[in-house]
Amino acid sequence: MIMEKTFFISKSASSEEYSAPAYDRFQRIEKLNLLVDSGWVIKSFKCDAHEEYFILEKADQ
Q1: Which residues, at least 6 apart from 6, have a Cβ–Cβ distance to it below 8 Å?
Q2: How far is Cα 43 from Cα 32, in angstroms, rounded to an integer?
Q3: Contact by Cβ (8 Å): 14, 58
Q4: Strands of 51-59's sheet in order across
Q5: Which of 3, 15, 37, 41 is least surrounded by Cβ atoms within 10 Å, i.e. has the fewest?
């Protein structure tokens, strides 16, 4: 079985009351590197006007 994870690199901080805060891009890249080192594989990268994120996958052990 393959596990899948969405990993956000940046997310816009809109003026909406309940919006998610903007992420520190460099800290998120460091976290992504740790995930890749632990066996996660980058399946794809998505980018739109509001968010940038990777789809990661890993074989379930």
Answers
A1: 53, 54, 55, 56
A2: 13
A3: no
A4: 2-11, 51-59, 41-47
A5: 15
Q: What amino acid occupies position 40?
A: W
Identify the H or E element spanning 33: helix 25-37
Q: State the residue for tokens 């074989």.
A: 59
Give the Cα separation of 28 and 10 in Å (integer).
8
In this structure, what token pair is assigned to residue 60?
């379930």
What's the pLDDT score for residue 12?
58
Residue 14: the pLDDT is 52
What is the amino acid identity at position 58?
Answer: K
Indicate the pTM of the whole model.
Answer: 0.71
Q: Is 18 helix (H, G, I), strand (E, B) or coil?
A: coil
